[in-house]
Amino acid sequence: MATDNDQEKTEEPTAKREEDARKKGDIARSKELNTVVVLMVGSVMIWMTGERIMKGMWRVMEEAFTIERSTLFDPLASINSLQFAMQEALMFVAPFLAAMVVAALAAPIAMGGWSFSAEAFAPKASKMNPLEGFKRMFAMRSLIELVKSLLKFGLILGIMALLVDIYLREFIYLSQLPLENALLRASDVMTLSFVILCSSLLLVVAIDVPFSLWEYKKKLKMTLQEVKDEMKQTEGRPEVKGKIRQLQQEMSQGRMLEAVPQADVIVTNPTHFAVALKYEEGGSDAPIVVAKGADLIAAKIRNIAVGNGVTLVSAPPLARALFFTTEIDQEVPKGLYLAVAQVLAYVYQLRIATQKRWKKPVAPSDISIPDEYKKYTNNTD
User: Fold this and answer.
1) pLDDT tens across 294-327, in order?
2) Cα separation of 18 and 221, whole Å?
3) Which one of 3.20.20.210, 3.40.50.150, 3.30.360.10, 3.40.1690.10 gives the CATH number of domain 259-376?
4) What local confidence, expressed as pLDDT, does residue 138 receive?
5) CB 173 within 8 A of CB 127
6) Strand 330-331 relative to strand 288-294: parallel, antiparallel, unpaired?
7) Helix (H, G, I), strand (E, B) or coil at 89
8) HSE of 381, CA atoms in CB hemisphere, 13 A
């Protein structure tokens, strides 16, 4: 007998499967994307604010290293100088730090969205098992990560060699410039080189992001049996749904049978079908079907009617026509008004005769129904 492990995972993950994985903290992630976004934002911010930071740091160092004679004998001078230096430095690097924080948060959201799962923080025995760790070292994922690391190393090494070849003479020339100018020019060259290096990693990201998405989808793929089992869990097992429908029908029948004692008449077939009618003057325009049933339910309706003194009238064509063309709490069709009126007239005459002890009227035997309803009366008891 085939098991889930024997089956190939050929089915796309369902929405529930993806949601369950997200709750466990298992979402699509690309480490390369996170790293490159942070590096790119950092390099661009350094490029935009580098000169301002360098000039500010130069001014801070001038202030810190310039000591007046009057401050030599002040015990708080060094503390004040340090406080000033820290405040000034923080003012210069605050935009850079803020941009880095935003980049560190935005990069994961860009792929897979934001997710926080307590289950991801829970300790797992498999992660502490040395054998499992040994298996992960030689798993396909580890081999892929090793190949990516070697490719990144080779790419960065090649770009660095190219940059050194381009800027080597300029760095040698910096030794001939004043210190401040040399530092500013060196920072420009290093910043531009850093931007170029980070940009080169976009090639790695362009490969890693689609691969990570494909790998994540592949991991979540399901077997056909898993899809069927999930549908059963989501929609309910057939036997449970059947039991629920049965209980609902029983409850509906119970409410219907409770209305039988208030009916004016029960039209029968005379055994297979029974339809309970009620008419209130000043209420609805036509009689209402308060209960109906076939076979066992019809027998219950007749028994309740007899026990509560509700009149039974045997009119097979009318009973069948009412049963097949009406619903509970629905008015009788206009085409059956005349036939139903004959039945109700007999019931009212029977009530008056019973009250006044007159001779009971004869039940109507010539109740006719329109031709369009005769298709329901082909089979009679």
Assistant:
1) 888 888 888 988 888 888 888 888 888 888 888 8
2) 10
3) 3.40.1690.10
4) 60
5) no
6) antiparallel
7) helix
8) 16
